[in-house]
Write a structure and sequence with these properties.
This protein is of the alpha/beta class and 414 residues long. It has helices at 19-23, 44-67, 84-89, 100-107, 117-128, 158-165, 199-203, 223-235, 243-260, 268-282, 286-290, 293-301, 303-312, 367-371; strands spanning 30-35, 71-77, 93-97, 112-116, 135-142, 148-153, 175-180, 186-189, 213-218, 325-328, 347-348, 353-354, 356-357, 377-380, 392-393, 397-398, 403-404. The protein folds into 4 domains: 2-128, NADH-ubiquinone oxidoreductase 51kDa subunit (Rossmann fold); 135-221, Ubiquitin-like (UB roll); 223-318, Up-down Bundle (de novo design (two linked rop proteins)), CATH 1.20.1440.230; 324-412, Alpha-Beta Plaits (2-Layer Sandwich), CATH 3.30.70.20.
């Protein structure tokens, strides 16, 4: 056992515990390595199996020898069954699993050492080179130039991940926040991009690096709507054993949904904070304890935006349909007529005329925005832009005079 004490790698599971510390904590009999599909929708495990399976197997065999284990087993998601033969060739038993919840009951037993497959890859790489800088397979996605799956060294900052691997933010946009750790990961604001990508810095915020997914969101993302979607997804992951988890996460979703629909009530923010604290303290598993992390960290960084949605019925990003109206930008409209297919007949105009949306008839379905090839259909919140009162000739409208240019378009009203 002494030989393993010097190995400086961390487990790639939920807690990121030093592996050597775990190995020496008790006598282990068996090793089970998890090669399961990530529930957050990223393809990290598929990437590992495709590019580093032999190295991961080497790490499993090395650990078996060093800890003198009786057997080793690979637990594969059913859709990775095609890789089972490679394990069998090496004499490693394989089992197929449907879901993580069923896996936990079957695998986590006394004397069974359970590791993420990526930890075995890190062990192999460390044994090959003691100066090896640990890497993590990470899905980087969102409003960036080159989304993809990358092998990222621990220690670099979140900003370096965006610029070096994602090749920067999508043109014309700026970073509003980053979600690190999949559906239950923490939120980091634009002023926190210097946060280092390490277990010590990310885990303290509740991020689960087992789901190594970094998502970049720009300023046109509504943080309230985004957390609402996260809470709905997380509510579907609960096993239902804990009342706090089963009911609490869904209640968070309902409160947030109301906030995006103009139904928020005084005190909702306090109620959400109380539920988040209760989930962290009173649930039985790591899923329950971390399910509200996206919301709790988001409220700390964007508290004012939550208050505006609930108290003032304002959505700064103009994403929440209840708080916006649609209009056609007279400076962009080319009079093509594509939006005249409006099912509510809320758009007036004609060939070569600037079109106008009647907000009293508009149902905010957004179909006009989808069909407009010139991106002339836009949104406004509390401040209505200067718009023509009647359809007028394309290029005739002047915002400064709040009307048509003199002598143009008067004879072509409809």
């Amino acid at each position: 056992m002494m030989e393993t004490d010097r190995i400086e790698i961390f487990g790639h599971g939920i807690k990121g515990r030093p592996s050597a510390e775990r190995w020496s904590s008790r006598e282990w009999k068996e090793l089970v390595c998890l090669f399961l599909e990530d529930q957050s929708g990223c393809g990290n495990m598929a990437y590992l199996l495709e590019h580093h399976l032999d190295e991961a197997i080497s790490g499993m065999e090395a650990l078996k020898d060093r800890l003198q284990l009786s057997s080793i087993c690979a637990l594969l998601s059913k859709n990775y069954e095609r890789y089972a033969e490679k394990f069998k060739v090496k004499g490693i038993e394989t089992k197929l699993a449907d879901a993580t919840k069923e896996t936990q009951k079957e695998v986590f037993k006394e004397g069974v050492l359970v590791h993420h497959g990526e930890t075995m890859l890190a062990l192999h790489q460390y044994l090959e080179d003691e100066n090896y800088v640990p890497h993590k397979i990470v899905t980087v996605t969102g409003d960036i130039m080159e989304p993809g799956i990358y092998e990222i060294p621990f220690g670099i900052t979140l900003e370096e991940i965006i610029t070096k691997y994602g090749k920067g933010v999508t043109a014309g946009k700026t970073v509003k926040f980053i979600s690190a750790g999949g559906g239950m990961g923490a939120v980091y604001g634009a002023d926190e991009l210097n946060t280092p990508f390490t277990y010590s810095s990310l885990l303290k915020d509740g991020t689960m690096l087992e789901s190594a997914k970094i998502e970049v969101f720009s300023n046109d993302t509504c943080i309230v709507g985004w957390t609402s979607e996260r809470m709905l997804l997380n509510s579907r992951k609960t096993c239902g054993t804990c009342v706090y988890c089963r009911e609490g996460i869904y209640q968070l979703f309902r409160i947030l949904q109301d906030a995006t629909e103009g139904k928020g009530r005084e005190g909702d923010v306090s109620v959400m904070k109380e539920i988040c604290d209760t989930l962290k303290a009173g649930t039985l598993c790591d899923i329950g304890r971390t399910a509200a992390v996206p919301l709790s960290t988001a409220m700390k960084k964007f508290g004012e935006e939550f208050e505006k949605h609930i108290d003032r019925k304002i959505c700064q990003s103009l994403s929440c349909i209840s708080y916006v109206n649609f209009y056609i930008d007279p400076a962009v409209c080319n009079g093509c007529g594509q939006c005249m297919t409006c099912p509510e007949h809320a758009i007036r105009g004609g060939e070569n005329l600037i079109h106008i949306i009647d907000t009293d008839l508009c149902s905010k379905c957004g179909k006009c925005s989808k069909v407009c090839s010139s991106n002339a259909v836009k949104r406004y919140g509390t401040v209505k832009p200067a718009l023509p009162s009647e359809p007028s000739e394309v290029g005739s409208f002047s915002a400064e005079s709040n009307g048509m240019k003199k002598g143009l378009g008067r004879r072509r009203r409809m």
